[in-house]
Amino acid sequence: MTRIIACISGKGGSGKTTLVANLGAALAEMGKDVVVIDANLTTPNLGLHVGFPIMPITLHDVLKGKAKINDAIYTHHKGLKIIPAGISINDLQGIDARDLPNALLDILGNSEIVLIDASAGLGREALAALESADETLLITNPELPAVMDALKAIKMAENLGTKVTGVVLNRSTRKGHEMTKDEVRNMLDTEIIAEIPEDMSVKQAISKRVPVVYHKPTSYASQEITKLAGRLVGENVVVNRPLHQRLFGFFSR
Ligand code: ADP
Ligand code: MG
Asked: Are the C-beta atoms of residues 59 and 37 closer than 8 Å to each other?
């Protein structure tokens, strides 16, 4: 059975696209058949994160009825599959985000896991991602505005009957001005299933158009994303930490 997981946040810039690219990469590394989909139809950039910035057939073509979804799937040489979106303004003409759930029907049964990168906000596009999914990962940063938006997103997912699998706390530094993990958990009343640190390697990887999980698998961010991948599929993954990290671990404070 195919598991469809939407990644939403409410607030933009929380790390949805980065998470979808890297969670997909981590799951593919574990041998899973995974497809990541760019459902941020108005401002897509998932393709950039995985090295497929401009592709001939995209999700927009599928939504316009010009192509079949299986023709819009591209495979990264490391195994991850992606359905990118069109990046031109012209791509936006004649599409309706509400057609997304139907467009995805043809890939059901062909993959183990589908990860949907949703748009920011809680408008029609984000709603379409939620409606297409069986479950939702909420991504937020440890600051009040992001957490408040995440709370609304959780309520929206619940209202639609989409299971909220957990909250991913991203860009955590554990500095005093940030909300603590417990504060975020209490406010959202939802389990925090991963805490990904603020990590320069993430930005370096994006600039190289490679998921950080591939670019720097030993980075703190990659390790936490890999652990999350293992947790999502109920498998134990062994993360080999370099010696310097074992001595001065980010999360050992
Ligand atoms: P969203 O899709 O939610 O709008 P993105 O995934 O595009 O957010 O992330 C926005 C930016 O935040 C990225 O381009 C990257 O520079 C930065 N970023 C995301 N996660 C991390 C992280 N764990 N550490 C450092 N920078 C990060
Ligand atoms: Mg994004």
From this structure: yes
